[in-house]
Design brief:
The chain is built from 7 helices and 17 strands. It is α+β, with helices and mostly antiparallel strands. The chain folds into 2 domains: 190 residues, Alpha-Beta Plaits (2-Layer Sandwich), CATH 3.30.70.20; 83 residues, Immunoglobulin-like, CATH 2.60.40. A hairpin with a 5-residue loop joins strand 12 and strand 13. The N and C termini lie far apart (70 Å). It binds iron/sulfur cluster (SF4) (2 copies). One iron/sulfur cluster binds next to helix 2.
Length: 283
């Protein structure tokens, strides 16, 4: 058996929109019966990019997250469809039948990921088919082929040697919103860059004004007492990412010959950049 899946590495997405444009080119003014009808020229797309700005000047980061149909194992869109207008193939690809689904707008609203768009010209709900017409011709989905940074990985979950299987086995990839209960087959690497928070800072020696490289930074969760340790880089910077919000943390900075510094941080739903932290000589 084949079970198609996709893994998207958020760290590698540079928001070039090549996938978005290629998808538009593939599906606008083209029909692939029995899987899809043409989409509208404007105002309709199967891929969208979520963007997240993190931190504050001078420590600002941006993450991008492509969202498309998650090819769910247990699709909510299928549950509301009448007359078998949505079905799942043996290889796991979920298809909205472009003939049977005409007029069934409830399919749009059923998807918790907002992956179904409404074609008001055709009165048709439409979504990504994972380029099933290309897969049947032995090709990759078009977005996977055009992505210049290798952010999109496509493959067979039932092939243990495939890259998607290896990445899942290594625990690197996870579904978005697993609590929706639809068991997606699109997974994300570095999902925390969209869903969690960081505490970062820059350390310098007060007596010399130099960037403090190699300072031991310990971050302790004051609720659980769990801790992580990092060391400042060449620029004196440190960062702990993937942190849970609504939690109090203690940041401790230690360097031989300098006084230990402690900073308490109450992390809410916002990344925290502590700015420049100066270490005093331990005379
Ligand atoms: S992501 Fe939405 S449209 Fe795609 S299979 Fe799941 S429920 Fe259906
Ligand atoms: S083509 Fe790749 S890098 Fe460009 S927006 Fe799409 S996923 Fe991101």
């Amino acid at each position: 058996m084949t079970k198609w899946a996709m893994i998207i590495d958020i760290d590698k997405c540079i928001a070039c929109y090549a996938c978005f444009n290629a998808c538009k080119d593939e599906f606008w003014d083209n029909i692939y019966p029995p899987y899809s009808a043409s989409i509208k020229k404007r105002g309709q797309t199967f891929i969208r990019l979520l963007k997240r700005e993190r931190g504050k000047f001078p420590y600002v980061k941006v993450s991008y997250m492509p969202i498309l149909c998650m090819q769910c194992e247990d699709p909510k869109c299928m549950k509301v469809a009448k007359n078998g207008a949505v079905y799942k193939r043996d290889d796991g690809i979920v298809i909205i039948d472009p003939v049977k689904a005409v007029g069934q707008k409830e399919i749009v609203n059923a998807c918790p990921y907002g992956a179904v768009s409404w074609n008001d010209e055709k009165k048709l709900p439409q979504k990504c088919t994972l380029c099933v017409h290309r897969i049947e011709a032995g090709k990759n989905p078009r977005c996977v082929d055009v992505c210049p940074s290798g952010a999109l990985i496509f493959g067979d979950l039932d092939d243990e040697k495939s890259e998607v299987s290896k990445k899942l086995r290594d625990g690197l990839a996870e579904p978005f919103h697993p609590e929706y209960g639809t068991k997606p087959k699109v997974f994300y690497i570095n999902l925390h860059k969209m869903t969690k928070y960081f505490i970062a800072g820059s350390v310098a020696f007060e007596d010399t004004d130099d960037c403090a490289e190699g300072v031991e930074v310990r971050l302790t969760n004051l609720k659980t007492n769990e801790f992580k340790v990092a060391f400042t880089d060449f620029f004196g910077s440190f960062e702990f990412d993937g942190l849970e919000p609504h939690t109090e943390y203690l940041v401790e900075l230690k360097y031989p010959g300098y006084q230990t510094k402690e900073i308490k941080v109450k992390l809410e739903e916002k990344d925290v950049y502590l700015g420049y932290i100066f270490l005093k000589r331990d005379y």
